[in-house]
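During the reporting period the student researcher (J.K.) took over the structure-prediction task from the postdoctoral fellow and processed the backlog of single-chain submissions. One of the processed entries is reproduced below for the supervisory committee.
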Amino acid sequence: MDTILYYSPVIIVVMVFLIQQRIVVTPEQLERKHREILRDIEARFVTLNSYEDMKLRFSEMQEKIDKIYDCLIISK
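J.K. obtained the following structure tokens:
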């Protein structure tokens, strides 16, 4: 206990330095940054479900285009 009291001013100075330099963050700051990252991700990227749905639609469109192409070639 005596050594803790002896080094307490140094510990306090180090902690204040870490907090001022934002090396150590509070849970509130961490949560705020997490929400900001999630908003950025939602704005920039598509969800996996949307991607799979779009891929299925492109596949269906490709099949229809192939059928139209086949009909045009056969009729010539």
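The committee noted the following: The helical segments are 2-20, 27-44, 48-75.
J.K. will present the remaining backlog at the next meeting.
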